[in-house]
Please model this.
Amino acid sequence: MLIGEYIHTIDEKSRVSMPAKFRKELGKKIIITPGLGTCLFIFTNKEWEKVSKKLSDSDSDLSFLKADQRNFNRYMFGRAAEVEIDSIGRILIPDFLKERIGLKNSAAIIGVGDRVEVWNDKTWSENKAVVEKQAEDLAEKLATGAK
Amino acid sequence: MLIGEYIHTIDEKSRVSMPAKFRKELGKKIIITPGLGTCLFIFTNKEWEKVSKKLSDSDSDLSFLKADQRNFNRYMFGRAAEVEIDSIGRILIPDFLKERIGLKNSAAIIGVGDRVEVWNDKTWSENKAVVEKQAEDLAEKLATGAK
DNA sequence: ATATGAAGTGGGAAAAAGTGGGAAATAATA
DNA sequence: TATTATTTCCCACTTTTTCCCACTTCATAT
Model:
């Protein structure tokens, strides 16, 4: 399971280390796509097969209009890239994806169960603060609602 | 059953001893996560499987399509870590989790039945006083059937 | 009191992870 | 084709993490 948060440098050649703890599960080749929200998604090959099958299945339970689905698929498929992890665990993120989330020198790499997310480190810490607060509210709700 | 309260040092290498009484039940690898409120949760692998299944199982297999779910998963998975208990019973708490609850030199480690909680020792002693007062009332409420 | 063992703490050395950069290989351009 | 730029591969440095050993404290037993 892919979990945890890592802040890694993006060097002048655009290389980023995948956290060592992720490497075994990720394998040699990964799929990197624009994500939802201000981040990128990285899937293992296996996970990507599942995801892409689901997305392209027009009979799926996704409540998309056909046109919406086409556009969504263009978004997810058209801008996805298969990327190889080099011998010491680094990948290259395509420029058009880096641009999308404003990646420059430093990235937050997040394990979210069955996928990895890549964030601009600053955006990540901001988002973290927001979600932290939401979680507290949720806890509060649960606590008061339970009584 | 994990019970009891222990105050342990966090050394310069971020190591903390798990109470000896917890070790057998915890096993070799544990999952440490941001809890709710001002503490961290430690789960056994077995417990975590239950918890994580609940978290990631949504109505759709594509849980990432829902913004709320995305954020919650980011919170619970992205800020969790699988950590190994070393040969003499110590663990390493990731910096991003220490930061979250302001852990520095000393931690309160609390057994709470099927999980362990980690507190900033000061926060713990403050809360303890409050909770102690509330405990009686709470017991009363629980006994009278309110959930 | 002294010995014994278990638990917690500290620190040095080896290994691993992350980062940077040069040179070869490939592609692009003139 | 020659030249330049880009990508890939490999090596090296630095920092962090891991592993192992040792010291201390506390409780129990002799």
About this structure: The radius of gyration of chain A is 17 Å.
